[in-house]
Structure prediction request, 173 residues.
Amino acid sequence: MKAKQRKWYDLKAARNAAGKTVAELRIYDDIGFWGTTAKAFVNELDAVAKDADEILVAVNSGGGDVFDGFAIYNALRRYSGKVTARVDGIAASAASLVVMAGDTIVMPENAMMMIHNAWTIAAGDAAQMRKTAELLDKTRDGIVAAYRNKCGLTDDEIVAMMDAETWMTAAEA
Prediction:
């Protein structure tokens, strides 16, 4: 018996008071191979977004795979209409990347955001470990670029926050 694949997102489109069609995307679970791949997500997003004037991304996620987060972020950035990102509860780790794709970010006062350095599990000899560390450094650079484009902090300030695993309230974010 084949296991039922679980969706970690929900998409729908509706007209707002101004008569514009808003496609709402909800990410309320882990991002990545634990649920649906970024490829499947982007296919679904494209299907709903083609008829939408705006996208609303509602997030309540502890994060997940950084590369799936990058793919979702980039797909939302490519969208030609307005993207609003709303943190409904938590946007941590890769989920915080998704939020950075918003033209506007909305965060209620009781929501939280967390940023940190990417991490992985690795095995191998010293040379392989150095390659893995270099990959993590390059991944950090991509994460920093997404945050920098949204927050206006310097790269050094963002890296220090990531090094410290920084949890932020809406006011702090």
Notes: The first strand starts at residue 9 and ends at 15.
